[in-house]
Amino acid sequence: MEAGPLQALPAVLALEFSPDEQPRQLTLGRDEAAELAELVAEDLHALVPQVAQARLALAGSLFDAVELLRPGFPVWATLDELARRVPRGQLENVVAFGNHDGHMPAQPLEPDPHYAGGPMRFLPLSLLAPAELAGELSDRLEVELVGRGEAGARTADWLMRRFGVRLEHARFLSRNDLLALTCVQYEHVNLAPLWQLLEAALLTPYREETTLSARGLSLRYADGKVWAQSPAQWLAHQSGDVAERRHAFAGAMFELRQYGALLHAHGIPLQLDSTPDSVAEPGNGALIDIIDSPDAAYGVPSLFAHEAPGLGVVAITVAQRGPGGRARTLAHAYPLQPAALGPLLAILADHFGSTSDLHALGHIQLDENGQLSAPSLALH
Fold it and tell me: Is pLDDT larger for residue 248 or for residue 93?
């Protein structure tokens, strides 16, 4: 056994596939993972000889970056925990974990097929080093992997044969390198504010972080969640005529859907700042903004669907009919993905005592002040 505690130095083997290529499997068997780990150990030792003094752990799983970059880094945490259980000296200080009967030894090491379509996949690695070596080894790896981190020819050939793909590149990256790569990718598609929130959740989860989306929607990271400004509240501060405001709201909802999908992929819940605890949690697929409680003097609440071209239902307004057919707004809700619409309607109907029938408006309904609303006249 080790004389003292080991410090984990997380890394990945990054695989960039040739165009239109996808691996025929997402995990390796135990023997295959062990073969790959030996090749990886040779490559890393050639780059940084001090690697021989650390324990190399490898998971034979191909992940998307969103699966690796989640709060607490659960894939690496699981890999490290499993590696520490193996007595030192066994397997020549190289340990690999592959599937047995189609299953990895722990759930966090199972890749999600939902994220399998991207052009890059990542095999997680970890070097468990004695405390007196960890700092120096980490510094050397950060320098050498950036400059000379291409996998060896034997390793690349093995990967192409086992996974049945052609590779553009196969190279080693530290976890910091992967964070930097993901940051650049999000900035490139105008999602720098999203990365600001993700970075806080990953690296400083104890601190709050606030930002504005590209369209000016206020976002805040705190307590393990991202809290978004109500889209209806955001709309109330916009200017322009009805057509401009409808277009702006549709754009803001498209952006919020992007944020919701990516935050969900990274394992971070998204919630509205204004949602009270008394409302059933709809999950990352939808958001609910409660404005008022039903009034017995008004009619039974109804659900109205605001729609935008190419986006479908972007918002649902819950409203009661009052004197003269005037609408009294009780809530706005926002489905962020198509599958969320049905469960969202059920939650709204249960909370407000309405039917789950949805009245399609065919457009985004605004009142005389340019704010999200229900139509004043009863629908037939």
Answer: 248
